[in-house]
Amino acid sequence: MPYSEKVTASSEQDTCFAQQVEVSIRKKFHKKIFSRFAKAVNEYKMLEEGDRVAVCISGGKDSMLMAKCFQELQRHRKFYFELVFLVMDPGYQIRNRRKIELNAEMMDIPLTIFESDIFHAVDHIKKSPCYLCARMRRGYLYSKAQELGCNKIALGHHFDDVIETVLMGMLYGGQVQTMMPKLHSTNFEGMQLIRPLYLVREDDIKHWRDYHNLEFLQCACHFTEACENSNEMSSKRQEIKDLIKTLKETNPYIEGNIFKSVENVNLSTVIAYKKNGIKYHFLDTYETGQKKQDKL
Fold this sequence. Notes:
It is a single chain. The chain has helices at about 5-25, 30-45, 60-75, 95-105, 120, 130-145, 160-175, 200-210, 235-250, 255-260, 285-295; strands at about 50-55, 80-90, 110-115, 150-155, 180-185, 190-195, 270-275, 280. The chain is an alpha/beta fold. The chain has a six-stranded mixed sheet with strand order 3-2-1-4-6-5, with helices on both faces. It has a two-stranded antiparallel ribbon with strand order 7-8. The protein is globular, with a radius of gyration of 22 Å.
């Protein structure tokens, strides 16, 4: 077969596969994935007229699915907004970058790729290299997105990430906090971060991935490549995943309750809390509060 015919055949196959993925999001996975994606976007007011969103793609299952959901949302949009599917290459090995490119081609996601030297920068960091890498990645993404005229970046964090963050903060950080559905950037004026998969369950994302026999990157830096396809990850997040799984055996509502707990905070029963960097203690208003009750 001549080369030109091979290219045409490959292009047709990719188009057909992309259509299959899109149909599955509309039908088979509509309730579990797309409707929850749309609900998060609407409930937390993530999109506005005229937005230009940098959909940040890491090469993993979450961000790739997010990209397809955004495309589907754009087809049904009630107002105008633009999308840029942004990939930062922090120093991937050739095979890993190519995997991202091939998956995007198969699913008809037009990528905008730029390069950085983050992997090299954190190469000799012994304490918390993953934390530093994540912080640097976000800074580069904000910067490039702003350069491209975007006012928002979208990250692929899902429901399970949210509840795991709540428990990690309590058990390892001694604080009650959550992963917010959207944030104003403190370093890039006018920029916001949104998390449209906020209400989508990880098991449903995995089901979508496996249904289409897709293979994605998990983490492609040399710190974790050895365990890329392994479930034996000795991380705190994995410990939390295991804890939630165990608790769910006796309480099937445990995940939803963890999520709701940070929506139903009763400040009258909290010893202390912080707001905008200022700490407030229940003793600050303890006496005045009692005097008001006595008057009643």
